[in-house]
Design goal:
The protein is mainly α. Helix 1 crosses helix 4 and helix 6 packs parallel to helix 9. The two termini are about 30 Å apart.
């Protein structure tokens, strides 16, 4: 689920870095997460990253290249719970119940911006930012694909009834998680998201279902 790095995203020019790259990336991640790509100015970035303009260009090349790297940082630092839960050694329903309840917790953590950076990022943007729109759309597709793969595994071991439409079920839970992320951005509490998660699990295919 980790995106490929943009080969032009890092420009080392022989100068030693005078800042902690990981800390700078995490600071940029939080800012982009909170304000969006187009809502984040260059001056805001170098301020929270605590670097000079020249160090920024030497280390990252451009705002867009930085954003590519920030998405990877998000997946490794803030979004790792998603794949960790999909890899749990449990029955498939339990995995998806854990996934939805974990989302309610993660999307409302007080120490980070609300929601999910991947879910809400660059869904609307100016035409010249289509590359970033496509990048985030591909990340959402990868997330849904990971859920579909786990559902397929459950189908093969009998956790889901024969004939279950795996792609539709993955799309449903993908939509549920993205909707929870938007609710969190709008100020929904963790308790409210937990209720949404419980209702979402009511859609789980019953043993007698034939989808």
């Amino acid at each position: 689920m980790t995106p490929k790095k943009d080969p032009s995203g890092r420009r080392g020019r022989g100068r030693p870095q005078s800042f902690d790259r990981k800390e700078a990336l995490c600071a940029a991640m939080r800012l982009f997460w909170d304000r969006g790509y187009e809502g984040t100015s260059f001056d805001d970035l170098i301020s929270v990253m605590k670097i000079s303009a020249s160090s920024f260009y030497n280390a990252f090349g451009s705002k867009e290249a930085l954003y590519h790297e920030v998405i990877e940082t998000y997946m490794n630092v803030a979004g790792g719970w998603f794949l960790d839960i999909l890899g749990e050694d449990a029955d498939t329903r339990t995995v998806f119940q854990d996934l939805t309840t974990a989302a309610a917790v993660e999307f409302t953590r007080p120490d980070q911006p609300a929601g999910c950076m991947i879910s809400v990022a660059v869904t609307q943007c100016s035409p010249n930012q289509h590359r970033l729109r496509d990048l985030l759309a591909s990340q959402r597709t990868l997330a849904e694909g990971a859920m579909a793969a786990r559902l397929q595994q459950g189908l093969e071991v009998g956790d889901l009834p024969t004939g279950t439409d795996i792609e539709a079920l993955a799309a449903f839970y993908g939509s549920l998680l993205r909707g929870m992320a938007v609710q969190a951005r709008d100020g929904a509490s963790q308790e409210r998201l937990m209720e949404i998660a419980r209702f979402g699990m009511n859609a789980w295919p019953k043993a007698s279902a034939r989808l």
